[in-house]
């Protein structure tokens, strides 16, 4: 890969050192918002067609997507051994042959984080020691968020105490349906406090929220309460990340930045499986928020099988041939 293309994957930008401090609950920032569904769908539909990224530039964009993946296992049969194997993949997602073909031997890319259940955090922390890859943990009664608040807060403290650097909380959707914004704000703020130095990602479970207005409002309340990221889905809903929902959340990010000066990150999750999906969401971020939001401190993709497809596409770029899926095991 030529150096000019690699520069797309390795930009000279500063990391986002300033966390979202949150604000007081401000209903006027979102209460009267209107969302034009047909306009949102039209804009989302045109995004994948607005940019044509080919050859070495496509490879560079896919390497960038790889560095933004939260490599995830949230299965009922997870074991420390599976988590350790996933962490090995996180630290070395590309083979030596691919790294050589891409010209990345000196700076091999790694994924953005490894995301697991709280009980699997110690195994992940041990496996990733010294790698610089953070461990993210779901918490707060994932995926429903319906356990009592004291238990949800204690689950956060447990995961942080075990070494998690990022906590993916899930909001109580009933509070959105009933428009109980103060209650939602108070819960997310308490969760942010329980996180301490760990970053908070607020999962909105957008497939359950029914309307795009609800999505926008829940996004704004979560950010006002101090969320460092807003995330589309748990991956367990009937409908997970979609481009229209993501567009509404990203517009909320932009409005919040304009009002407060704080950059908040975005994480689509659930249903993203292919390299094409990765490209579509990267294009969405670039078009709507600009180059700065293509870095893992502001953009993550919740996925696991996507990495294997990115590998296959990169191998095709290097060798001219597609490899079998079994050549790219995950865990």
TrEMBL record:
Catalytic activity, EC = 4.1.2.4
Record flagged with keyword Lyase: yes
The UniProt entry, under InterPro entries, shows: Aldolase_TIM, DeoC, DeoC/FbaB/LacD_aldolase
Q: Pfam families annotated for this entry?
A: DeoC
- Identify the pathway: Carbohydrate degradation; 2-deoxy-D-ribose 1-phosphate degradation; D-glyceraldehyde 3-phosphate and acetaldehyde from 2-deoxy-alpha-D-ribose 1-phosphate: step 2/2
Which reaction is recorded as catalysed by this protein?
2-deoxy-D-ribose 5-phosphate = D-glyceraldehyde 3-phosphate + acetaldehyde
Q: In its keyword annotation, does this UniProt entry include Manganese?
A: no
Keyword line: Lyase, Schiff base
Annotated GO MF terms: deoxyribose-phosphate aldolase activity
The entry assigns this protein to a family as follows: Belongs to the DeoC/FbaB aldolase family. DeoC type 2 subfamily.
In terms of PANTHER family, this protein maps to:
DEOXYRIBOSE-PHOSPHATE ALDOLASE (PTHR10889:SF3)
Q: What is the name listed in the Swiss-Prot or TrEMBL entry for this protein?
A: Deoxyribose-phosphate aldolase
Taxonomic source organism: Mesorhizobium marinum
Q: Which gene encodes it?
A: deoC
């Amino acid at each position: 890969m030529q150096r000019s293309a690699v520069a797309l994957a390795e930009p000279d930008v500063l990391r986002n050192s300033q966390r979202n401090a949150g604000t007081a609950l401000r209903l006027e920032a979102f209460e009267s918002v209107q969302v034009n569904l047909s306009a949102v769908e039209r804009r989302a539909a045109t995004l994948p067609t607005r940019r044509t990224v080919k050859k070495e530039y496509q490879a560079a964009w896919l390497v960038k997507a790889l560095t933004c993946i939260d490599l995830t296992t949230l299965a009922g049969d997870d074991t420390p051994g599976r988590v350790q194997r996933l962490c090995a993949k996180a630290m070395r997602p590309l083979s030596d042959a691919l790294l050589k073909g891409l010209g990345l031997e000196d700076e091999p890319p790694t994924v953005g984080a490894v995301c697991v259940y709280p009980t699997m955090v110690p195994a992940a922390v041990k496996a990733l020691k010294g790698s610089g890859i953070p461990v993210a943990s779901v918490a707060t009664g994932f995926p429903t968020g319906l356990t009592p608040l004291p238990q949800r807060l204690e689950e956060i403290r447990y995961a942080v105490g075990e070494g998690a650097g990022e906590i993916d909380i899930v909001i109580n959707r009933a509070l959105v349906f009933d428009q109980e914004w103060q209650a939602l704000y108070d819960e997310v703020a308490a969760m942010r406090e329980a996180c301490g130095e760990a970053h908070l990602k607020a999962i909105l479970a957008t497939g359950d929220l029914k309307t795009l207005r609800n999505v926008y409002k829940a996004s704004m309340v979560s950010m006002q309460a101090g969320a460092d990221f807003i995330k589309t889905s748990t991956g367990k809903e009937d409908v997970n990340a979609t481009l229209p929902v993501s567009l509404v959340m990203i517009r909320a990010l932009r409005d919040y930045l304009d009002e407060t000066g704080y950059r908040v990150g975005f994480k689509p999750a659930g249903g993203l499986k292919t390299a094409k999906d990765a490209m579509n969401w990267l294009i969405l971020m670039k078009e709507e928020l600009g180059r700065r939001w293509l870095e893992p401190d502001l953009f993550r993709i919740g996925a696991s099988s996507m990495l294997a497809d990115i590998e296959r596409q990169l191998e095709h770029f290097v060798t001219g041939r597609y490899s079998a899926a079994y050549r790219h095991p995950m865990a």
